[in-house]
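>> received
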Amino acid sequence: MRRVRIVGLAAMALCLVACSGGGNTVAGVGSASPTTVPAAKVSITAAGGDQVNPKTPIVIKATDGTLSAVTVTNPQSGNKVVGDFSADKTTWTSNDTLRFSAVYQVVATAVNKEGKSVEQKGEVHTLTATAVAAPSLFQAPDVANDFGVGLIIGVKFDHDVNDKAAAEKALKVTSTPAQGGSWYWVSKREAHFRPKQYWQAGSTVKLETGVYGQALGDGTYGGPDVSATYKIHDAWVGKADGNTHQLQAFHNGELVRTAPTSMGKTANTPPRGPTPTFNGTHVVLGKTAHIIMDSCTYGICEGQPGYYKAPENWDVQISGDGEFLHENLATVSVQGSQNVSNGCLNLNTDNAKWFFDNFNIGDPIEVTNSGGPQLAINNGHGDWAIDWATWQSGSALHG
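>> returned
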């Protein structure tokens, strides 16, 4: 039985009876027939049985009359629920976000054709979830005005999602022009989306979650939805080759600069041993004109062999564990011939400044022949380092 409690306070319609003027009647002329105007009736509907899903709107309907007033209140918060009347004022439908585990008090008034009013009261109980998994954006849209063609978008939940397929069906990505793509579940709480190839330059990409009130398994339901629109700028792609020790820059497919570089060393030299740059496509995460690079951030601190703390300029970050394109004057003599860095791509001043000025968040840097392992998906935005077949297998719907 639906748990919608209703108390009726109905006004009785009056029956009007015409009386004759005397005891006699004229053939063919009788007393007037009684006329009854039905009382207006109010019903409160919200599908869902004993506990209504909060994504289901509350609907108030009047029959034999029209609605003159509707108030729906959450007494726990004191907030009133926003809704709209139909054009003929026979229906009121909520268009607000309802809460989980709430009792909404409804007071509705309707009038019949004779102007007689009836008031109806009731309660709507929303379901209680074991947990509410609220989504947030993997890539915030406000960190840049626009993004590179290597943009990775996605959703993070603050609780485990056990029914990934249900969640994925509720997630919606649209792009203009249309480019398709697939989801990949990094964990029970995080899913990323990308197309097979880079986004087209000039595209617009929109992400909408649509999970609110969606059952996500084991009593967990989706929390309030989020959405974002991303603008894709010109195609800027860097290609770094560990064999040639060159970093090339392509703008909309055209080679516009070649810079000698020194990547991470592969030799087992003390004190750290090999520190090769990760292979695979990196994505620019951010940039800082001047930074202090401190080896203590990865465990080699002051007093230990190999410790350094050095100011570096024109720093473009390309991985989560501290790989950058940046100026390094100490390695200029071997840039273009040897890989001697701690994992970064070292450049001279002019080249570092040029890449800093032209490369921005979402622009891909493809690293090959570095001698290092593949960049992991959780090390910045290592998603493009995963081949397309493997990426598709990470979808709950296509895997």
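>> The two ends are 40 Å apart (CA to CA).
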